[in-house]
Structures are given as C-alpha cells and as structure tokens.
Amino acid sequence: MSGGRVKIGIDGLDQMMGGGLVPGSIAAIIGSYGTGKTSFALQFLWDGVQLGEHTIYISLEEREDRIFEYMAQKGWNYKPFLNKLITVLKLDPSDFNLAINRIKNELPELIRTVGAIRVVIDPISLFEDLFESNSLRRQEMFRFVEGLRDQQCTVVMTSETDRDNPYASRHNLIEYLCDTVIILRYVRPDDLSDVHLALEVVKMRLSSHSREIKPYEILQDKILVHSEANVF
Predict the structure, then answer these.
(1) Peptide linkage before 166 cis (omega within 30 of 0)
(2) Residue 230, domain member (yes or no)
(3) Mind listing the pLDDT tens digit for each residue in 140-173?
C-alpha cells in the first residue's frame, strides 16, 4: 500500500485509478478469453507479497500447480513465500455444495486466520454459475460481497464477459456489486490489420479516475498499460 492506495502493481493502470485501489474495496476485472484477467490478478497478488502482505488466491479454474507455473514464467521467486505470504486454494465448481460452502463460509475465516490484506477470486463467474436462478444468484452474491467487506481486505475478482456484450460480466451482476470495474477487451481496426488490447476503468467508487480507453501489452514478465497513449 502506498499513499493511501492499494496498488495493483501495473504503473499505467494504477495511475488511471489515482494511485491504485481504495483500501478495503472490491474490484472486478472483466474480459473475454485471452485478455489477461489472470495476469492482472496475479500482478495484484505479487505486488502485495513484495510489500510483505499476506495474500490469498482462490482459483475456480486453474490448478495450484498451473498458478505457480505462471508465477515462475514471470520470473517471480515465489517459493519462499508459499504458505507464508501466499496461500493458493483451488476449488472445484462442479461440486456445488462443497464450492458454495467453502467460498461462503470458509473463505472469511481463512482471511482472518492468515491475516490476508489482498484476496483474489479467479474467476468469480464460475461461482455465479452455480446458482440455478437469477434471483438466488443476486441474493447470494450480495450476501457474499457484503461479507467480504467485513474482512477489511482488498479484493480483486475476475469475470468472463457476457457472450453478447463485451462490456458486461457473464451474469451482468458483479459490476453492480463491486466498487471498481476494469474492462479488458480486444479492439479490431476496420481493416483487420492488427488486433489491440485495451482497458477502461468504467467505475470507481470513492475516487476520481481516468475514463479514457488505454492500450496495454502482456509481456512475459509484466503488463504495460500505455496511459499516455491512445488506442489508435
């Protein structure tokens, strides 16, 4: 944490958000496949580790060994921090009762036990998929998000986009519950000569933020957000 903000650890993006996330807030990173949602989430976690903060990574998609492989590929020496500053938990969303219980009931206790300052849930959309009706989903997600607010940690959730709307999450819900919403998307020129990645901070409670659309690159060891450039 620096200057009263919780940095994601991506300079251009932190700059767009006035220095980073508001402490204790909940952020959603929404994007389609290949836009780098997990890379953004991992950077947020690793930035906290470098500051000596306890972190938790809840994966509903990738196995633990895959998460560690991503860290290694980035050149991060994560092993000394495992089960100390880094706790990674893989949940199987296909086991409805187990996944629901562990996320709703065990996660708050885990946050308190390890003293987590930063928490990642990747992707929250797989948890949302577990509910059979929209009304139950809204009810349970509202309770879950409000419960996270009581833990006094800063949370980043990733979500897949709606199949028909690249500016909305799969269930068009999490963006209303979160304090900060970051959209990752592809930008294709009319001539289809190249494909760009662009992001936008579309919402940020309790803070001013840039509303410009900025290009970004995902490199092996870092993410570059070109906050001084335009998409074209």
Answers:
(1) no
(2) no
(3) 899 889 989 999 899 999 999 998 898 899 999 9
